[in-house]
Specification:
347 residues; alpha+beta; six-stranded antiparallel β-sheet; 6 helices; binds 2,5-dihydroxybenzoic acid
Length: 347
């Protein structure tokens, strides 16, 4: 590959003239924006310990009333991307949200999509367009872009969950905004995971002729995901991942347009090599402990910790227990990359 001319090669008056006319020569920066072979990455493979986050979040509960926060969230910001930019990866926003008994996080809708993955507590719920989704630990709850959502808590003790949004993408598009709305009235029926979409492989008959909703299923109960992983484990060859994708039960496609969600079980004593791929991701540890090797950076993880998988990273995940499985929840931007046509897996 030829060495290109630099800025210093150009006369000062020429450079100043270009700058004054908002013009930039490409060639001095060409190898930065189009590096050979592999992208330049600023995303660091950082880990956030839940043992650190939890006390800070509970303190936020004392310091800032919900009315002054709307959403009481500490954002997991990747230092490589600039803390103020609120990016865990270039495309993924991750926050940890606290709601205390009796509090309400008021109704709104926004252009970014969001999902909640519940970490601890009883009695929390999210209302999505009138559907009340109970938040039990490990549950995944979708709040698709443009759908009204508010959070509440009728139990005791703190409820904490992880928020994942495609906010960095919408923000880069200069398309991110929110609309506030009045408190929703609750439809007095159980969520669709208990009624219309109770079981994989069965859908309401009329949805065959015309799918009724873009997002028929808003809640994926962890109890069923965990059982399904345990059933999958013994029929999965040793070198393959025991991994289930969260999909739309009517289309079988990823459940959200931009971000992908999957659950992964590391069997007792298992060490798993993930293929290098173009997607970035964030792993949240649901249960167990272990070790991640990300491009040579070694991270020891415990239950409820979260860590970053940069694009194109070589990733090895090890279960730290020879006795118990570990369960991980993975968020990635593969759906967006597939749609844009550059998703790659390198084996
Ligand atoms: O709960 O709707 O972490 O609007 C960031 C923005 C959570 C939410 C976040 C939000 C929400």
């Amino acid at each position: 590959m030829t060495t290109l001319g630099t800025l210093a090669d150009l006369p000062l008056d020429y450079r100043q003239g270009l700058t004054s006319r908002n013009l930039v020569p490409l060639w001095p920066g060409l190898r930065t924006v189009l590096p050979p072979g592999r992208p330049i990455r600023h995303t660091q493979p950082v880990l956030w310990r839940y043992a650190d986050i939890r006390p800070d979040l509970l303190r936020a509960g004392e310091l800032t009333p919900i009315e002054k926060a709307e959403r009481r969230v500490l954002v997991l910001a990747n230092p490589g991307l600039g803390l103020d930019n609120m990016q865990a990866t270039p495309t993924i926003y991750i926050g940890m949200q606290l709601i205390l008994p009796g509090e309400m996080a008021p109704n709104h809708k926004h252009t970014p999509i969001a999902v909640r993955f519940v970490i601890e507590g009883d009695g929390g719920y999210t209302l999505v367009e009138g559907e009340k989704c109970p938040m039990e630990p490990g549950d995944l709850i979708l709040t698709p872009g443009g759908l009204w959502h508010e959070h509440g808590h009728d139990g005791s003790g703190p409820v904490i969950w992880l928020d994942a949004l495609d906010l960095p993408v919408l923000y880069a598009f200069e398309a991110s905004y929110v609309t506030e709305g009045p408190h929703q009235s609750i439809r007095n029926e159980p969520d669709a995971s208990q009624t219309r979409y109770r079981r994989a492989g069965l859908v309401p008959y009329r949805s065959l002729d015309a799918p009724r909703k873009a997002y028929p299923l808003l809640r994926y109960p962890w109890r069923e995901v965990r059982e399904s992983l345990q059933a999958l484990a013994p029929v999965t060859p040793k070198r393959d991942a025991v991994q289930l994708a969260y999909v739309n039960p009517e289309t079988g496609q990823e459940c959200m347009p931009t971000l992908g969600f999957s659950a992964l079980m590391l069997r007792r004593g298992e060490t798993l090599n993930l293929p290098r791929r173009s997607a970035s991701g964030v792993v949240h540890v649901v249960e167990g402990r272990g070790q991640a090797d990300i491009d040579g950076t070694i991270l020891a993880f415990d239950a409820h910790d979260s860590f970053v998988l940069p694009t194109h990273a070589g990733v090895t995940l090890g279960n730290g227990s020879g006795k118990k499985p570990a369960f991980l929840f993975l968020i990635d931007d593969a759906p967006l990359q597939r749609k844009l046509g550059f998703y790659e897996v390198f084996s």
